[in-house]
Structure formats: C-alpha cells, structure tokens
Write a structure and sequence with these properties.
This protein is of the alpha/beta class. It folds into three domains: 16-98, Winged helix-like DNA-binding domain superfamily/Winged helix DNA-binding domain (Arc Repressor Mutant, subunit A, Orthogonal Bundle); 104-173 and 285-311, D-Maltodextrin-Binding Protein, domain 2; 177-280, Periplasmic binding protein-like II (D-Maltodextrin-Binding Protein, domain 2), CATH 3.40.190.10. 39% of the residues lie in helices and 23% in strands. The strands form three sheets. Strands 3, 4, 5, 6, 7, 10, 11, 12, 13 and 14 form a ten-stranded mixed beta sheet that branches. A two-stranded antiparallel sheet has the order 1-2. The longest helix has 26 residues, at 76-101. The two termini are 38 Å apart.
Length: 332
C-alpha cells in the first residue's frame, strides 16, 4: 500500500502544516475574546498560548485578531480561518473516536423546515439510531431563511432547503419534489367539493398563509401570478403549528406541501390536490463541498435520501416525487 510522503524536514518552517493545538488555542481565544480567559479554560499558561498564536499568525502571514474594548476580535482573515479550524478540530475528534470504537462515530447537525420535519423527522431519527447508533444527531427545526443563515455560519452540517432559498456557495443534492394541497375544514364556506382543484378555483376562499419572507409563500406567489389569480389572504402566520391551529379552527384554508398532511393525523381537514404545475416545491439537501464533509455527514446524507425514498414509495409522504442523489451534487 502506497503512502504519502510526510517528511517535512527540508521544508521552510512557514510552510509546515498548522498544528491542531494551534487551531484549538485560536478557536478558544476567538470564542472567549481573551488570551487569559482562554488559557484558564484550557489549563495552559497564557504565555504559551500567546506564543502559539504568534507562531500561527507568522505561518499564515496575516494577523488573526484585533483589539477592541470588549477584548480580542478576529480580523476578516481570522473569521475565515475560524470556520475551517472549528470543522478541522471536529473532524479530528471524530477520527480519534472512530479509531477507538472501530466504527463510524462523531456528530452531525441537520436542519429541517417545520413542514419537512413533520414527515421526515422521526423516521430519520429512527433510521439513524438503527444504522449508526454511535453518531450523535442534532436536528434543528426552523424556517428556511434561518436554516440558510445557520448553514452559512457553519452551525449546520446539512439542511433541507427549497430551491428558491439556495446559495451559490453551497453544494446541493436534489431530494424530492412536493405537490401542494389545499387544507381546510370540510365545513369551511366556499370550499370546493372536488378532490383536486386549480388555483383559479379558489375564488374568494379565505387563506391562512405564511408571510412573504417564507420560501413556500414565494413559490406560491409566483404560481398565483402565472395563473392570473389574486388570492384572498386573510391571515399571515409564520409558525406552522399555529397556522394549522388557525385552519383547524375554521379561520380559513391553507396551501401547503403534502408533508403537512402528516400534522393532521386524525384527518380533521380535507386535503385537495392543487393541479397547477407551478404549485410545487423542490427540496434539496444543502451542505458544504463534498471534500469538506466528514464521514458522519456523508453517512447521514445517505440515510436522509433512503428515508425520503421509502416515505415517497410507500405514499407516507403525500404528493412527493423522489430524486436519486447525484454522485457529486448540483452546484448552484
């Protein structure tokens, strides 16, 4: 078996690889804003920590901190380095744990929008527990805009986002395409009686919808415009649980992807399929570039796809078309 040449004896000291200890010191100072405080938390001498930071800045040939009234603040270069240093340290810890346990270990954080979490959340947790019991899984349920910000800040390893919320700097893997349903109480005045309808059939039916900042709302606004329909939006609610409570109370109908039907287990509401081709939401798995993903994250991405495929095939994710993951993702 061939191995890479790791003999750095003849290299310039400034070209030597950064040590994990230096990264750890840097991250702790960046998080605490103080060399003295970071040294105390790490149990090392402040002078030692300071020397390592100076060596790190010399190796990188750029200052990583600037002084402010509140303490040390990373420079632009420092913030850029911080994200990668945090990821490198986590990968190193995962590698040590994997070697000790002789199996895939580590930790992964996945963001799900509320509608997707209602159908995918529990099956994903159960599948992860069965396949990779040593992985620590952290699921975050939040609106797509919040998930996007968390992904940018590297607070998430993966997030499920609608195509309208994607950013060019992410790697993207198409997952599912969801058709939209009209959900309402059967006794709501003006509710069409057919099992399917078009947006033009809504008439003056009062709608309870998320606000314009919501990804689904943006998709539906475009669908309404293309259909030449002016919807009667009587209430705007951004929390899915409260929105569905308002619909169950008879305050109006709502337009939601099929996953939301799973939040109505007792089938208190009628679900009418919307036939307009524009009333669809494509959901993708978003994450960092392939070569930045840890084995734990790569394994989790596979499980997400497998669970989504099974839910779609068994019609437990209504109105869903599953997309097989491409090998390298769809760079947007």
């Amino acid at each position: 078996m061939s191995t890479a040449n790791l003999d750095f004896a003849d290299e310039d000291p400034l070209d030597l690889p950064i040590e994990l200890r230096q990264m750890r010191f840097f991250v702790r100072v960046a998080e605490s804003g103080s060399i003295r405080r970071a040294a105390s938390e790490l149990g090392v001498a402040a002078s030692m920590l300071s020397r390592d930071l100076e060596k790190l800045e010399a190796q990188l040939a750029t200052p990583l901190f600037r002084r402010a009234r509140t303490g040390l603040i990373p420079t632009d270069a420092g913030f850029a380095f911080l994200r990668h240093a945090q990821m490198t340290l986590q990968h190193a810890l995962d590698a040590v744990e994997a070697a000790r346990h002789r199996r895939l270990v580590g930790h992964v954080t996945v963001g799900l929008p509320p509608s997707t979490a209602s159908v995918l959340g529990m099956p994903l947790l159960l599948a992860m527990r069965e396949r990779h019991p040593e992985l620590r899984v952290h699921l975050v349920e939040a609106l797509s805009g919040h998930l996007s910000a968390m992904l940018d800040a590297r607070q998430l390893d993966l997030a499920l986002v609608a195509r309208g919320n994607v950013m060019r700097r992410w790697s993207l893997w198409p997952l599912i395409e969801e058709r939209v349903y009209l959900l309402a109480r059967a006794d709501l005045a003006g509710l069409p009686q057919s099992s399917t309808l078009s947006l033009a059939d809504l008439g003056e039916l009062p709608l309870v919808m998320p606000s314009g900042s919501h990804g689904l709302r943006a998709i539906l606004d475009i669908a309404f415009e293309r259909a030449g329909v002016r919807p009667n939006i009587s209430l705007e609610i951004d929390g899915l649980a409260l929105l569905m409570d308002a619909v169950r109370a008879g305050l109006g109908a709502t337009l939601q992807p099929g996953s939301v039907i799973c939040r109505d287990p007792g089938r208190q509401l009628r679900a009418l399929l919307v036939s307009d081709s524009d009333a669809r939401r494509q959901t993708l798995i978003a994450g960092r570039h392939e070569d930045e993903l840890s084995p734990a994250v790569l394994a989790t991405r596979v499980v997400i796809a497998d669970v989504a495929r099974e839910l779609a095939a068994t019609e437990r994710w209504p109105g869903t078309l599953f997309h097989e993951l491409s090998p390298k993702g769809d760079e947007s």
